[in-house]
């Protein structure tokens, strides 16, 4: 960390990184643990889907609310509550005797996780100003990205040599360290006077998403004619529609619909929905199939996707600089199309499995496309909104990404044809490629590069045209 930061600023960054680290670590651990969870607790593909989606439902639905709660009650208080909740839920997951209790604990964990990432970033932006703020966010991004690398490998080692349960208990270590550091912060926990929270909106959003996802996951088992399917689906749609209506009328919405009047913002979020839906599908399917279909150990399955993440880390900052000079549209168009090509390379996976020739080329091409896409996508969305609203803009984009992953995983049975065998794996690869291509097309048609002032510095930006 740069010596130009004070000790307190370094401590703020350390707390923010550790608080977010557990959420990123858990999100990347779970995919390699899914086959072992299913083997021990039963439930097959449905248990695996709900293990992922129970977390994403509460995370996606409550991450917007978390910003309002953080402003109203203070970021440090919210961080402390989120950390304690995440630790308790992680221990409950590790002790779960059956799929139902595991899924309930995962939902609680997602709710706690929703309060960690926005609050940790808000702690940085409210405590560190000027050039050091960009440096602090860069450190936060690099170290939390490292969690996505460590997660599959750490999870795989625990699954192979101890138990999948220990893969969740490991979250408690950084949480305890963070809780020990929090009282040592000298940052004043500011609270917005007169702030109000749309609790009803959060309730409608959570139940609406839950009803729709339940129907999508359980439909292959019960059929569309079952009351247990169509009733939650209809109620879920109605409640989510009520949530959207309320966000247009309530004084302090958790989802400000006015943001979607900005072209680059709504277009970027639509591209996000396609791209991050595809990323969730790819991560789930590759993590599970490499173990259940190809016979790799959990550790090797975790290591299999590391080339993709390493390329993301190496390329992101460089591509971000280029996108700042020439605009994000080209990168947001080409990147997803490159990832689509990488997904299609997985069609070479056959009965006689060979990682080096059948999977590694896909991981490399996919990582190249991901590195081209991520930084310009984030810059286009946040750059479209005035700086004082960048926090809520970031929260909305994060929620869109989570909900997109949630819906795609809920539809997994339909995508793979009911079974994640070799044919299902190929079907998922094609679906991933189609979603990525859609993201590239949306970006090409909708994103506009910033208008430049000829007299300004070459790196200056103005509002999107």
Helix content: over 70%
Order of H and E elements? HHHHHHHHHHHHHHHHHH
Q: In the CATH hierarchy, what is the architecture of the largest domain at level 2?
A: Up-down Bundle
Class by alpha and beta content:
mainly alpha
CATH C-level name of the largest domain: Mainly Alpha
Strand element count = 0
List unreliable stretches of 5+ residues.
Answer: 455-465
Stated plainly, the CATH topology of the largest domain is called Growth Hormone, Chain: A
Would you kindly provide a brief summary of this structure?
The protein is 77% helix and 0% strand. It has 465 residues and is mainly alpha-helical.
Write the layout of secondary structure elements.
Elements: H1 7-41, H2 44-73, H3 75-95, H4 99-114, H5 117-127, H6 131-161, H7 164-169, H8 172-181, H9 199-222, H10 227-247, H11 263-292, H12 298-304, H13 306-326, H14 329-344, H15 355-383, H16 390-410, H17 412-416, H18 422-446
């Amino acid at each position: 960390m740069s010596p130009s930061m004070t000790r307190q600023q370094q401590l703020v960054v350390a707390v923010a990184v550790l608080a977010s680290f557990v959420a990123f670590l858990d999100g990347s651990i779970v995919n390699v643990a899914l086959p072992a969870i299913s083997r021990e607790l039963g439930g097959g593909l449905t248990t695996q889907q709900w293990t992922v989606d129970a977390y994403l439902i509460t995370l996606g639905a409550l991450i917007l609310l978390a910003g309002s709660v953080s402003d109203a009650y203070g970021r440090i208080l919210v961080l402390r509550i989120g950390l304690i909740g995440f630790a308790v839920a992680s221990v409950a997951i590790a002790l779960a005797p059956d799929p139902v209790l595991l899924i309930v604990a995962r939902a609680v964990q997602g709710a706690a996780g929703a309060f960690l990432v926005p609050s940790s970033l808000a702690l940085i932006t409210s405590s560190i100003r000027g050039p050091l703020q960009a440096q602090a966010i860069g450190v936060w991004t690099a170290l939390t990205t490292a969690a996505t690398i460590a997660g599959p490998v750490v999870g795989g080692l625990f699954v192979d040599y101890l138990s999948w349960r220990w893969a969740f208990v490991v979250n408690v270590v950084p949480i305890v360290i963070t809780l020990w550091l929090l009282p040592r912060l000298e940052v004043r926990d500011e609270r917005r006077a007169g702030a109000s929270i749309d609790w009803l909106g959060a309730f409608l959003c959570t139940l609406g998403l839950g009803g729709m996802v339940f129907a999508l996951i359980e439909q292959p088992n019960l059929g569309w004619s079952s009351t247990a399917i169509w009733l939650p689906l209809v109620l879920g749609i109605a409640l989510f529609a009520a949530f959207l209506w309320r966000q247009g009328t309530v004084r302090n919405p958790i989802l400000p619909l006015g943001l979607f009047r900005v072209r680059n913002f709504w277009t970027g979020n639509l591209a996000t929905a396609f791209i991050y839906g595809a990323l969730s599908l790819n991560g789930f399917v590759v993590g599970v199939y490499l173990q259940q279909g190809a016979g790799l150990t959990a550790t090797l399955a975790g290591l299999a996707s590391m080339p993709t993440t390493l390329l993301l880390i190496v390329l992101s900052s460089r591509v971000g600089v280029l996108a700042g000079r020439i605009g994000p549209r080209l990168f947001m168009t080409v990147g997803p199309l490159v990832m689509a090509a990488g997904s299609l390379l997985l069609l070479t996976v056959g009965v006689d499995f060979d990682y080096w020739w059948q999977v590694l080329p896909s991981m490399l091409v996919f990582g190249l496309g991901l590195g081209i896409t991520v930084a310009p996508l984030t810059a286009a969305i946040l750059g479209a909104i005035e700086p004082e609203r960048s926090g809520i803009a970031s929260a909305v984009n994060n929620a869109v990404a989570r909900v997109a992953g949630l819906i795609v995983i809920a539809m997994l049975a339909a995508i793979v044809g009911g079974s994640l065998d070799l044919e299902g794996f190929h079907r998922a690869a094609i679906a991933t490629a189609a979603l990525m291509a859609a993201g590239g097309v949306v970006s090409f048609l909708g994103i506009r590069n910033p208008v430049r002032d000829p007299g300004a510095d070459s790196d200056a930006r103005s509002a999107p045209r």
